[in-house]
Amino acid sequence: MFAAAIDGPAGAGKSSVAREAAKRLGFVYVDTGALYRTVALYLLDQGVPLRDSQRVAAALPGVQVGLEYGEEGQRMRLNGQDVTGRIRTPEVSMATSAVAAIPAVRAFLLGLQRQLARENNVLMDGRDIGTVVLPQAQLKVFLTASPEERARRRVRQLEESGQPADPAEVLREIRQRDLQDSTRETAPLKPAPDGVLLDTSGLTFQESVESLIGLVRERM
Ligand code: DC
């Protein structure tokens, strides 16, 4: 089996680039953020206080996370129910950020992620895949773009969906989140020492996909 770890900050285009590259390679694209989101949704539904790590840990045995891979990609199940749509709300995004900082949650999802890589050729997208989840991955990519470029893309996205945005404010938020993600105690976001940096700042989407596919092919 071949495993590529794709880590990097939010807003760098990681998931869309990795999804397209996986499709063209015939690999499974694993979105690990969706696993954390599914756990967070359960905790929200149950009314568990998200910053109480003991209560969160005690609730985890009640969570059964299921994945399915079909035509339209990865679908998530929570205790048998399809929650693919429900995990994408802003409320769940906020909750996930808190929940992902709890060591018991990260440990809970570790086995599932490793099992997926044992059974499939994967492009696995996350924050700590190359450093913690798959330290033996044949390829580790830190996919990023400059804060300014990520802010520009985000502003464009917001404008396209009819929400005007203040570019300076968006950039400030991105810098703030980068700082939070890279300085948190559990699994901080950082490039693996033996990884390859893929900076998509000056690249189009197609060029980014080609670069990633090239890196995989070099190592197959
Ligand atoms: O990639 P995403 O936006 O779906 O991630 C949701 C949250 O989960 C985000 O706060 C980062 C966190 N996350 C993580 O800590 N580790 C991962 N492997 C994937 C996501």
Give the quaternary arrangement of the chains. single chain
In total, the number of domains comes to: 1
Mean pLDDT: 94
Helix and strand sequence: EHEHHEEEHHEHEHHEH
Major beta sheet, specifics?
A: 5 strands, parallel
> How many strands appear in the DSSP assignment?
8
In the CATH hierarchy, what is the class?
A: Alpha Beta
> Superfamily at the CATH H level?
P-loop containing nucleotide triphosphate hydrolases
Low-confidence sequence ranges: none
Number of helices: 9
The helical percent reads: 40-55%
Secondary structure category: alpha/beta
Spatial strand sequence of the major β-sheet? 2-6-1-7-8
Structure description:
With 220 residues, the chain is an alpha/beta fold. It has one domain (3-219): P-loop containing nucleotide triphosphate hydrolases (Rossmann fold, 3-Layer(aba) Sandwich), CATH 3.40.50.300. The protein is 51% helix and 17% strand. The protein has helices at residues 14-25, 32-46, 53-59, 90-99, 103-119, 129-133, 147-160, 167-183, 205-219; strands spanning 3-7, 28-31, 65-70, 73-78, 81-82, 122-126, 139-144, 196-199. Strands 2-6-1-7-8 form a five-stranded parallel beta sheet, with helices on both faces. The longest helix has 17 residues, at 103-119. The termini are close together. The relative contact order is 0.21. The mean pLDDT is 94. 2'-deoxycytidine-5'-monophosphate binds at residues 10, 32-33, 36-37, 96-97, 100, 126-128.
Task: Name its key features.
Rossmann fold, alpha/beta, binds 2'-deoxycytidine-5'-monophosphate, 220 residues, five-stranded parallel sheet, 51% helix, single chain
